[in-house]
Amino acid sequence: MTTQKIDTILILSGGNSTRFKPLGHKNLFVFNGEPLIEYQLKFYGRYTDNLIVVGNEETQHAIKLYAKTHNARFVLQQGNGQGAAVASAASYIQGSVLIVNGNDLYHEPLLTDLLKKREEHNVDGLLVSVAVRDYIPGGYLLLEDSRVTGVHEKPGADNMPSQYFKLVVDYIADAQKFIAVLMRAQSHNDDLYEVALTEYLSTKNFKNVVYKSDWATLKYPWHILDATSFFLKEVKQHIGSNVRIDPTAVVIGDVYIDDGVQVYEHSKIVGPCYIGKNTIVGNFVLINQSMIGEKSVIGGYSEVTRSYIGDNVWTHRAYIGDSVVEGAANFAAGSVTANYRFDKRDVTCRIKGEKISTQRNKLGLIAGRDIQLGVNSSTMPGVMLSSGSCVQPGDVCSKDM
Amino acid sequence: MTTQKIDTILILSGGNSTRFKPLGHKNLFVFNGEPLIEYQLKFYGRYTDNLIVVGNEETQHAIKLYAKTHNARFVLQQGNGQGAAVASAASYIQGSVLIVNGNDLYHEPLLTDLLKKREEHNVDGLLVSVAVRDYIPGGYLLLEDSRVTGVHEKPGADNMPSQYFKLVVDYIADAQKFIAVLMRAQSHNDDLYEVALTEYLSTKNFKNVVYKSDWATLKYPWHILDATSFFLKEVKQHIGSNVRIDPTAVVIGDVYIDDGVQVYEHSKIVGPCYIGKNTIVGNFVLINQSMIGEKSVIGGYSEVTRSYIGDNVWTHRAYIGDSVVEGAANFAAGSVTANYRFDKRDVTCRIKGEKISTQRNKLGLIAGRDIQLGVNSSTMPGVMLSSGSCVQPGDVCSKDM
Amino acid sequence: MTTQKIDTILILSGGNSTRFKPLGHKNLFVFNGEPLIEYQLKFYGRYTDNLIVVGNEETQHAIKLYAKTHNARFVLQQGNGQGAAVASAASYIQGSVLIVNGNDLYHEPLLTDLLKKREEHNVDGLLVSVAVRDYIPGGYLLLEDSRVTGVHEKPGADNMPSQYFKLVVDYIADAQKFIAVLMRAQSHNDDLYEVALTEYLSTKNFKNVVYKSDWATLKYPWHILDATSFFLKEVKQHIGSNVRIDPTAVVIGDVYIDDGVQVYEHSKIVGPCYIGKNTIVGNFVLINQSMIGEKSVIGGYSEVTRSYIGDNVWTHRAYIGDSVVEGAANFAAGSVTANYRFDKRDVTCRIKGEKISTQRNKLGLIAGRDIQLGVNSSTMPGVMLSSGSCVQPGDVCSKDM
Description:
The structure is a homotrimer of 401-residue chains.
Chain A: E1 8-13, E2 30-31, E3 34-35, H1 36-45, E4 51-55, H2 60-69, E5 73-76, H3 81-88, E6 97-101, E7 104-106, H4 109-121, E8 125-131, E9 139-144, E10 147-153, E11 164-172, H5 175-184, H6 192-202, E12 206-210, E13 215-217, H7 223-232, E14 238-239, E15 244-245, E16 250-252, E17 255-257, E18 262-263, E19 268-270, E20 273-275, E21 280-281, E22 286-288, E23 291-292, E24 297-298, E25 303-305, E26 308-311, E27 314-315, E28 319-321, E29 324-327, E30 330-331, E31 336-337, E32 347-351, E33 354-360, E34 366-367, E35 372-373, E36 378-379, E37 384-385, E38 390-391, E39 396-397
């Protein structure tokens, strides 16, 4: 049986990452050994022969390369917003199109369910949603019988038109008709796309596809932890070549151990975990539900729990919990990332100067590249360190650096 | 053979606990899974059919319940001091009586030796003492031949009438006669009981029973550690139901492991120890000669040595040595209770504003309920934390809170 | 075959140790269970029947005893410098002499190579050198054909007369002739010896013996680490009597474990290591390429890496890396000797008020006797603590004490 295809799939990866600081480009974050963009190219590439990535200037060189490898076309985004992104690629789109956000993560049932629905109904379009119990900010579908008649943006908790929270997975059977509407739309704001879509679907037969598996989105830096959880669910037990696991070490559950990894005496790894190439797990180390990059050294007595650790991160007698460490960091002996407040409240972070709740009860450190924590130093929950920061020995760091 | 009985045994548990702060009520402290008062009710209950507990208002609800369970009578104490306590229960006492302090702990030979002595001599009364080498403050027996002729209160080190330090385990063959003396005694001070006893025994045939096993008394909060040692001596090896002990963990000596306990990889427990129901002992944990309550989590890399830990205490990468933690506490990663002075002197504590020597070379933290130690924080030897205290991350706490 | 002999060997151990503070006398530092001076007496004693140690007042009592044990003569040095040292012993020297520095360490090939060269050439003298790639300050040999014609002191990197860096291992066939030159020499400075040697060899047939094995010299306190590496290379696997090594402990490589040592559960020792008599290695301990003295306790969770630890050193949950701890110290829980700079540069130390590079990328603490590190305290790389120093709990010590 050949896979059903969509004429064009458009991956929107051109947004800027200003709310993602101190971390680098979302699309290039590496999970399970490959950059996010590669996962997306593979995920969607199976369902189209015309895969297009819309990217921005900052990351274009890297993303172009990945796109090429996967026989996808790279288009540089002109202007801001989703509407501008689609418009930038308009000349390469024909027939049916699926428009997805490159920073949103889905598992396999997404497209099989969508394609099945397309068969059944022979519709003009399909919107994908998740059923939510509690209100989260975003767009909600307006439904009449089984038809989607509109999308209500940020209706508020008391005013939800349905429980269907709209994802950015929009299938349109006749792409050029929709693009014509988009080009004519009278908005110069960020909501151009939404305005056009609302207009377009009001006269068409759009259906709702309810997505029922896990998903994650990367908007704020702590969302790397959501993505880590997402990707860890895909991990299968694996032991690469030239791996040395001492017989006294304990490995439990689904742990992917890449080539050249060494696990020393008495250590314990509790899956799901991903341990990147040539990484060393020292003596008396605990790693729990975490992703570790390549050439890192999780040194003696260190503990890494529910965290994302990039490449070339060295730790020694350190505790890293519910934290994101992008890469090339050094955690000296006795350094601790506190991840739980005395008052037990959700941890807050400062984004563009504004304190916002992460809605996480446990959150440790969020650190860009090349950071150092001195001996016996501590970071308070939700602290963010930009690249090159050093927390002095013995210090308690409670403010972003 | 039926056990010999005493007509009435009076457990005096009505004293207040002002010198016991920041800890709660002594009588309700739980050792080896049961409150102290239950131990006393069982210990003495075997030797009488008329067991009476004299208690105070603060704890009466709890103690009444325990008394009822053990077929004992609860009497609310009127007035202060031991004399008032006995007087409060006078109407329920007849025949022979044994008067004991509910905060003093003895092992089994106490009553068998006492009852044997009663047989041999057919005496009017028996006082129990321990032979001490060095002076400790308290009452000492005056002896003429084998007869006790008086009790000398606080004679001082140079003036001890004998080496027999009097315990509060007073047997009187004709209780009502003694009570009559007590009622007439001309003291309105705390020493009413002692005055009456001295008067009474001066004309009677009282004998000395020398107690030769371990005992402990609960006066100051650090005495919980003495009581812990006392009770740990009673511990026998036991593994409850639904217990999981990882094969890589090491359990040595007499360790009581209650139902539902989990012991993770590579941990070590060195008896005597008591581990309460559903408590979790994490990875790389060391527990040594300690008592742990229920539903506690001694988390990864934590070390607990010669300490009392109550229920719901969470520790993570913490060191707790020679310490009392009443319950519901949180010890964050890197927190340490220092238990040994640089100058190697005995540790001092502040009781009612006064600095007194604990006569302990090693003493860590004494903590009431709901305390928190932040990451990489430390407490100095002998520090006392009242309920709800938080030691901030990285701080060195050298004063009581 | 009888060993060839030299008529007299002169060990110069009379220099003062002012640049060696805060550490004690170099000659009495214990490596592999014996003081440095004993190693030298044994090393050179095999090659002469007239072994002489020139020492100073401070250490004479101890060194005299060791000399006596090894049938060597002790001579008290009069005046300063190497020339004065040789002159002090002049009346005991006859025939051939080998003059060596008691603070320089060599392996066996030194003397066998030298004696072989003596046979082959029937020379007036032999100087020993090492071939260096990069310039280090000191004397370099001037060679004409195979004859040594002079020694150029501190020529500078651009002006090296040869690659042969002169060691202090000087063989002179006719000692008294050389001493006569020394006595007449017109220098009253420290370089008297060098002046006389240069004059002497200018008219004689001196040859160069190139030493090709490891060597170490003790000038600055961190050189104890070089000496430790030197002596660890001599260590062979050994387990003494009354040793207890728990089956869960891991011992790898050449580890000398002396009598009465105990190694507790789950610990790991990676050779080369030397563990002195009756020392205890607690639970979850890591010892790596280090030398530990007698009666020390490397307590639970401690880690000792590439360090020299003397007798009676107690550590608990401490990290000691690239450090020298002379003896009788206490490292409390959470104490850390930082050994690596944030800026990754070589560590500097202060010697006589002057900051000098140790040319070591990793260097921790250098500590005299009876020092204490409080709980959760830290020392910065290259800090030196004099005897009796205490680093307060929680402090970060970045200055010498």
